[in-house]
């Protein structure tokens, strides 16, 4: 076996001259989808050999096919199957479920890639990217401020400064100023300085995870090649040499966000001490020091904002440079200011006593207002871009990005408010000892119940629509099975599967209504917080008292829902990484989010495509160079997206030798609608022109995959008619047992799969193919009604 592996490594690298007889070899490179699988299942053979790669992602062959290039005649026209297994990039042990806690960062990063396709509006495109990066920066500040609220305000300032609370939580006794046991740490400033280690450690952990995951997943360099001519403004950016290597931007953003987190902690420590020092009769030296430190923090915050705004992604070339001075100095400066803030707050102030809450409500209200304004500006920019080149299939008429950014901000607010409220309830069981978290955070927790009611109402509407659709589908099922559809239960199951599969197409409406409700409820929470601050407690009577009572009830319910939701969140996250069935259910959403490079937030989960796409590109380029053979790139589900992205990265001469077979593909149904700038109609039509041939298989019962929907005559040329599912309605000679409803899985079980693969191989020739004529109804290679019908071989 080891000898076979060595032969495979020598024969598959492509560093040698073409093997003898390699011109007759055909290769089928299989790329699996989101569910993950094993090479033995993909190749249908228990004996497999790793040709190239490592334990994270690798290419496998059957043991008998390791040196197939040296024996081309033995295949008798059949391709050599290879399996690219990348499931370990997105699944693994249960600890990766903790990545779900980075969900707000992932969602805001997703908004960056959802801009409309807009040729000729470069300034607006840059403005769109800058606004998303600023929204990501506010999320870092918000979650760090929430950690400061829990550690500094609730624990160190309020609870440790209250004798009754310390009596309930003895682990805070060494911080208490009451009694004879008061020690050095009992001073308010020193308590704050000690508690600041918690949010600072959180910031350091995020920095470490970002750096570590970058090195583990995204540091693989793509093939270095010259950029293609950009005369065609509709050409997708996925074909640019530097698209899958964002090292420079990620390093800049990592430095800026790390500095922003440390500056947030430093401000939380500095501002209370500086306010105390500005009291009449206070020490002048401390007052001056506090003002200077606040000014330095403001200047550093401005510098961080400028760094985030100044540079976006550079994709036109493979940029290996790193702004080392900036990357090193920005966190170092923030760390120095943080250390200075700790020293300043820890200075002895005998008359300083902690009472009430820390001054944080203004900061949280300002962050919420800034996020709302950024979302509005982002919506205006997206509308301008969409209006320039309207795409009728684009989700929410190009407003998908602002809607997703709104959800990211809402997730951050809900997590901040819910955690702060739950910790406050835990520390102050009776609700009489502590002032509690800032008013805005409690109001944000109160938003959860009404928002949940809105989502449940929308789900109920969708369920009703699905049931009505399933009833209408029964007639179509009966019509598809003339003289055979005599089982009402069987008909009902097939119709329900078809109707449920169409729920995916209702996602834009669901997102639009949810994001709108979130925006309105968030605005109401901000208004309620401001009204609470300005209205004295004694004036809370009449209608205002009723509103306050309802708000308190919603706040209590929301805080409990946050606790339950957190437990469910982590539990389902662990299950998604361990249970293949759960992974197929919710994995597509996670895999869509982590498919894209980190362009707006450096603390988002790592991008697996920055490893997978270069892997596929290198394998295809080196194999075709070494053998001169034919290659069919076969991708299922998310694997079809990786296959398309890898095909765009190939040299034009190599891309023209590749045939593409996709099945259960979300290329148009999900990616084309939600990411029109990169997978829109123009981009997919360009891919169809540049590869030798492309065929796409889909089913009406598939909730993920769908047709590619290329315009004009190109559509039927790429898309085969929806496959029959199930393969047989009743019992037949070929299917004596009831055939299952396959939906998104087992496309290879359909005879159409082997038929389309055979047609693709018949089209490919060992010599370079000629140019493709205009799309038209050209018969397939075997004379059938379907086929690529374009390129002709010399």
UniProtKB/TrEMBL annotation:
It comes from the Bacteria. Keywords: Membrane, Transmembrane, Transmembrane helix. Residues 781-794 have a biased composition (Gly residues). The chain crosses the membrane at residues 97-115, 127-147, 192-211, 255-276, 288-309, 330-347, 367-386, 398-420, 440-463, 509-531, 551-573. Residues 1-45, 763-794 are annotated as: Disordered. This is Integral membrane protein.
